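TA notes. Do not distribute before section.
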Amino acid sequence: MKSGGVEAGEVAKASVASYGVNKGVSVLDFMLRILAFVCTLGSAIAMGTTDETLPFFTQFIRFRARYDDLPTFTFFVIANSIVCAYLVLSLPLSIFHIMRSAAQNSRIVLVIFDTVMLALLTAGASASAAIVYLAHKGNTRANWFSICQQFHSFCERISGSLIGSFGGVVLFVLLILLSAIALSRR
């Protein structure tokens, strides 16, 4: 008969199962970090290389659209680059969590930095989304015309880079949730 205590065999089985789940969470964390790296790097490169020139009446007069014409897009490229660099620097810590699933303090540090990077990435993507919306739709009350009727390639590239950046936002939310799950299992 058990008298309120837990037998040694039951404790060992529970710790082995917890170790396997935590290791699986750590491997998923590593893969999501690599995927978020690809999303933010692709977004920064796509936006940073966006440039389109249209001829006006003659070949000497041209209209040009570049990402650095708008400070919002410059902030977008810088924010995605910072987050991309952070993701590369956080990969060794993620590998450390795969090897030592019981590490708790380093996971707390990652949650804090992940939250800061999520805020930065969301700020850059949201600000750029407002400008992209104006580029596509315009605003007749403010006399802002949509430029996407003329600059097709420019608008396609900036819209695509926004998709990658918002994909990174979703991946960061998943990373934070995974870290919270791993911390709560201890």
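Switch to the second chain here.
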Amino acid sequence: MTLFDVKMRYMRDDLEYNYQDSMVVTMKGHIPSSFGNVTALESLDLSSNKLVGEIPMQSTGLKFLEVLNLSQNQLVGPIPHGNQFNTFSNDSYGGNLGLCGFPLPKRSGKDKAHEPPKSVFHGE
């Protein structure tokens, strides 16, 4: 059984349900790049864990993902671009002060390279 072969028992031991289209995960550390392999996933809630590091670029492989909640962690770096990641709002990333890039107002280093230099004259 792999990390994503999750079977959950609900109320009675003789009934078993597979939750394949949504996940609520409790974990610490880095987001595994293998999350990108769960291609049929529609909803992923990793909020309020103790996640650190960057969001793996492989996450853009989640082409059916409609809901993403990575809020209230300690994630840093640029938010991946492409596929469903272009559709998520600021709320998906709230509380991760080290994240940058679309849709957040804080730009990534690549975005800053395209901005005009700030004036050295303050108030003149």
